[in-house]
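Please discuss these two lines.
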Amino acid sequence: MIILHASIAILGVLLLIIALKVEPVIALVLGSLYLGIAGGIGLAGTVETIAVGFGEIMAEVGLLIGFGVLLGALLYALGALQKFVALLLRLLGAKRLPYAMSAALTTLFPSIYVDVQLVLASPLARSAAPHIGRGGLPLLAGSLTAGILVGYVFVVPGLGTLSIAGLLDIPLGTMLIFGLVVGPVTAVVTTFLFSLVLKRGFWTPANDEHETQALQDAEQAADEKDAEHEAAMPPLAVSLLPVIVPLLLIASGAIASAAGVENSVIAFVSNPVFALFLGMVGAYVLARRTLGRERTDDAVTTGLSTTGQILLITGIGGSLGAVIGETTLDQVLGDLFSASTGTSVILTLLLAWLIAALLHFAIGSISVAAIAAAGILAPVLGSLDVAPVVVGLAIGAGALFALQVNSNFFWMFQSLLGISTQGALKALTFVTALASVVAMPIIIVLGFLVPA
């Protein structure tokens, strides 16, 4: 019976979001309320469980998300991404740019929110496309897709990654190490495979591209604004320090732990909360010195306005997981996901991928799908013979699958890159589906190699 109630709750959430356009936060709370009451927790117990689950996940990732978003907003103001892509173009040339761009966006810039990454990188991709030749625009559009969204679900401090790690109680150092294995490889291989597909006539410029005066005007305004502020921007190496230093600190803690080294100083400086706070403060000081107080305050205000929605959705994901934990659903799912043989490792990871993929395809939000899937699976992790970090990676891969027309990102992508809806289906929907599938063999191999 609990399976029926859980199905009703999840389908109800999907219908509220898709058909009635209800905010995901409201829909997830209503789904949690229904599941708790129908699952026998009781009226007061359900509300209390929702509050406790929200508080527990906020204790895990609340500060991390807040610091990560503010760091990304300040990096945006400092122009780090624009300068980095321009440097790649000069050093590597146009032919290698798609691969370098996808790897760099995945590895170095996941702290910048995906919409902002797209706004920053799309004019650079459009301007570089003619240098690549025929198929330059779709190839760079696909590399943006792979770079931005793969980093979002696999690499710390990507917000999707932080949410999955927090809900599944995965140490961020561990998530960082494995994310840096899966993320860049997935992004580069996806870009390469997409280039092969393009060579077979997958892209038709007459139908898949279009130019608008509004896009030209927006690019001209952006170029003028960049030129106006370029003199004030710090050097690239300095701009990247606020994101590189925290990643190195977090990684050092994971490496020290794996080596059996225990030290209070290492534990302190490698703590993800401290590391991201240090990066955020560094970016803030750098912005104040180079951009002035007014522009820095504007960047912080933008970051704070984004943080609230992300924190609410993440917290409600924790509430859903707590409600599941108080019902018997975790036992049922534990039986479904139980892994006693090598073959079951594959089945477990594919089921985790499938849950997240279905949620994303229906809801249209990578973050909501990842959070909901992690909330559903978190209570049964202890019964699995697969390492939690590998399950988290499988959830991230599933949540990436086939971003399409029910996502705001889809329409931003189409508009900013000057392509048609058909073109966006190819360079965004197809590429996210491809990346989601490319990642799974790597994740399955890790499922056999990493101890549970």
Notes: The mean pLDDT is 83. DSSP finds 21 helices and no strands in the chain.
